[in-house]
Amino acid sequence: QEQVVESGGGLVEAGGSLRLSCVASPRSLSLHDMAWFRQAPGKEREFVARINMISGSTNYADSVKGRFTIDKDSAENTLFLDMKTLKPGDTAIYSCYAKPIFGGEYWGQGTQVTVSS
């Protein structure tokens, strides 16, 4: 059974840092892309960052460029998001997205990130 599980969320003060992780299983699942999205209360889900699991190329939302870094461990189907200089506006549920090479897509349940002012 394929699944995507996030971890690493929590409560942090403005200016602080957090590192999110996401594991897509089974390990034999060949992935093309993985990405992070977030949804703040009362708002629509928005794109945060994406990485190509083969080439390593990345894309970021303008709102997080220079503060967030997306990284991967392709062998373990693991995705990371290093978040620095966090702002209260970054408060949201962060969800992991995985797109296999051979089709389909998977979403995790999400992990809460709360940034206090």
What does this structure look like?
The chain has about 120 residues and is an all-beta fold. Helix content is about 0%, strand content about 55%. The protein contains no helices and eleven strands. It has strands at about 5, 10-15, 20-25, 30-40, 45-50, 60, 70-75, 80-85, 90-100, 105, 110-115. Strands 2, 4, 5, 6, 9, 10 and 11 form a seven-stranded mixed sheet that branches. The mean pLDDT is about 95.
Chain-wise SSE layout:
Elements (H helix, E strand, L loop, with lengths): L2 E5 L2 E4 L4 E8 L5 E9 L6 E7 L5 E3 L7 E6 L4 E6 L8 E9 L5 E2 L3 E6 L1
Parallel strand pairs: 2-11
Antiparallel strand pairs: 1-3, 3-8, 4-5, 4-9, 5-6, 7-8, 9-10, 9-11
In short:
The chain has 117 residues and is mostly beta strands.
Keywords:
0% helix; mainly beta; globular; 117 residues; seven-stranded mixed β-sheet; four-stranded antiparallel β-sheet
